[in-house]
Design brief:
alpha+beta, 6-stranded antiparallel β-sheet, Phosphatase 2c, domain 1, 280 residues, 12 strands
Length: 280
């Protein structure tokens, strides 16, 4: 099964990023928070080609199964696709972008199918599902596939940008004019998913493509982490630090501020070819 972490951390050494002049450092950390079980799953590819975070739903052990299965399917499919992804880097930019996005979306839809199929086998797992965020590095850019309300952020020059949109009923109601943005911040609909892996026959995969620059930092995280920080705090804690220090500080910061939910983060830093240490 996929790597499902509980109150442990993992850091992997610098690897070459798929793009000119970049190397990548990454670290992940998770904690069950106030829950008896950790239903989050995460994976950092040893070669730093892709990164995954999933937050399971469904109660009992179903959430743990759903998130681990989704991560496993995406991991296996993207690992198998690496020869093809390597060949695609020689293509013109637009063709490369469309082809890589298609591979990424196919992997996520495969996870959706498998979680839904497994969920139909027993009564206790019938409603299991998971959020899913995947970052794939190729051609000096980050390709993101997003389902649910986990998030991907990018920090550049100490400014933070949320690259994904929460797939919740509150966001849908704001878009439809039934609720203001201010009301959505405290609404009970803020935690009700409108889109998830494995729950309904259809899934909407949000695809994002962003070029990377040296010193950019990406954060993949579950709601158990970002719920406890303002965006400016995330930017400050992610700027000029080793990924391992950043992700540990964020996870344990969420624990000390209440930590009602499982808490998981993956921090990915693009660094110049000769850069090694953290910068202040």
């Amino acid at each position: 099964m996929a790597m499902q972490l509980s109150a442990i951390r993992s850091e992997v050494p610098d690897r070459r990023c798929h793009g000119p002049g970049f190397r990548v450092r990454a670290a992940m950390h998770t904690n069950p928070g106030g829950r008896p079980h950790n239903e989050d799953s995460a994976y950092v590819d040893p070669e730093h080609r892709f990164f995954i975070v999933a937050d399971g739903i469904g109660g009992h052990e179903a959430g743990e199964v759903a998130s681990a299965l989704a991560v496993e399917v995406v991991r296996d499919r993207l690992s198998a696709a690496q020869p093809e992804l390597a060949r695609l880097e020689a293509m013109p930019r637009d063709q490369h972008r469309h082809a890589v996005s298609a591979i990424l979306e196919c992997a996520v839809r495969g996870a959706h199918y498998e979680v839904g199929r497994q969920g139909g086998r027993t009564r206790l797992r019938r409603k299991m599902g998971t959020t899913l965020d995947v970052v794939l590095l190729s051609g000096g850019a980050a390709f993101i596939a997003h389902v649910g309300d986990s998030r991907v952020y990018r920090v550049r020059d100490r400014s933070i940008e949320q690259l994904t949109q929460d797939h919740t009923m509150a966001v849908a109601m704001v878009a439809g004019g039934a609720m203001s943005r201010e009301q959505a911040l405290t609404s009970s609909m803020r935690t009700v998913l409108s889109n998830a892996i494995g729950v309904s026959p259809q899934v909407r995969v949000e695809l994002v493509h962003v070029p990377l620059e040296a010193r950019d930092v990406l954060l993949l995280c579950t709601d158990g982490l970002y719920d406890y920080f303002e965006p400016y705090e995330l930017a400050r804690r992610l700027s000029g630090r080793e990924p391992e220090l950043s992700v540990r500080e964020l996870v344990y910061g969420a624990v000390t501020r209440g930590g009602h939910d499982n808490i998981t983060g993956v921090v990915v830093e693009a660094i110049g070819g000769d850069e090694r240490g953290a910068r202040g």
